[in-house]
Design a protein that fits this description.
The chain is built from eight helices and ten strands. The chain is an alpha+beta fold. The chain has two domains: about 130 residues, no CATH class; about 100 residues, no CATH class. It starts with a helix and ends in a 6-residue tail after the last strand.
Length: about 260
């Protein structure tokens, strides 16, 4: 009895691995564009961060905004629109109800699956996601998912396992290979067991300077321009610079939304 159960279980894992491999090797017809494929509105910060007059990093008053804890939601959904939607500005813009239905359809598509061109959901009236989010941001905020999805992302378990330098070197190489195939990648940035950062970025391009690789990313917290995540080949370490929510320094990263268990 135990053996009969064990064999199908192993087969299921193998098949899941095959499905994952197909997505991991996916190639897209164009590159992700920061100017076109990102949201215009930010994931708002809960706290105010700054360096005081003594050079100490401070976390102070709570933010009054309501659109918070959506960094994973925004990074994931930006890739879902890139993978599963097609914009047609030649058609009339939809009314609110029709747009809500279209957005829900895109958000319901798996970020782990590469759809065909024929399966893409047509978004009429706008040239790209950036323009749509500028004009109809409230509907997008209401329909792409709540803060809960930033906490129940299935790959969250990985952060508790120590990250070796060999693992991070392999991650950097996999990132380069994916971006060479024009496949944008969602990364989880952590410093576990410290809680100095627990964030998601969507990496879409890179610049290889030999000893250092600069990965360019859409940061849901700062949608005005690309973020830079650097990888030092010698130290085999990723670094994120100081910004409005992180004092800068080493981060450990891994890809999410790409495997059945991530």
């Amino acid at each position: 009895m135990a053996r009969r159960f064990w064999v199908p279980a192993v087969l299921a894992l193998v098949l899941a691995g095959c499905a994952d491999f197909g997505f991991a090797r996916a190639t897209y017809g164009r590159r992700f564009s920061f100017e076109q494929d990102t949201f215009a509105f930010p994931n708002e910060l809960v706290w105010s961060y700054h360096v005081d007059e003594h050079g100490v990093w401070r976390v102070e008053s709570a933010h009054s905004g309501s659109y918070i804890h959506r960094c994973f939601v925004l990074a994931r959904t930006a890739r879902q629109f890139f993978q599963h939607a097609r914009f047609d500005p030649s058609q009339p813009a939809p009314d609110d109800d029709a747009l809500r239905r279209l957005v829900r359809r895109v958000a319901a598509r798996s970020p782990r699956v590469q759809g065909s061109e024929a399966e893409r959901i047509v978004i009429p009236g706008y040239p790209n996601l950036r323009a749509l989010s500028e004009a109809r941001g409230e509907i997008l905020r209401e329909e792409i998912g709540g803060a809960l999805w930033s906490y129940v992302e299935r790959g969250g378990w990985r952060m508790v396992i120590p990250f070796t330098r060999r693992n991070q070197a392999r991650t950097a190489q996999h990132l380069i290979e994916a971006l060479d195939r024009r496949r944008p990648t969602v990364l989880h940035l952590v410093r576990f067991p410290h809680i100095t950062i627990n964030h998601a970025l969507l990496v879409y391009d890179y610049e290889d300077a030999g000893g250092v690789v600069r990965f360019f990313a859409y940061d849901p917290n700062a949608p005005s321009g690309p973020a830079v995540l650097s990888y030092d080949r010698g130290a085999r370490t990723f670094e994120l610079g100081r910004n409005a929510y992180f004092q800068g320094g080493r981060v450990d990263v891994y890809e999410i939304y790409h495997r059945p268990w991530y």
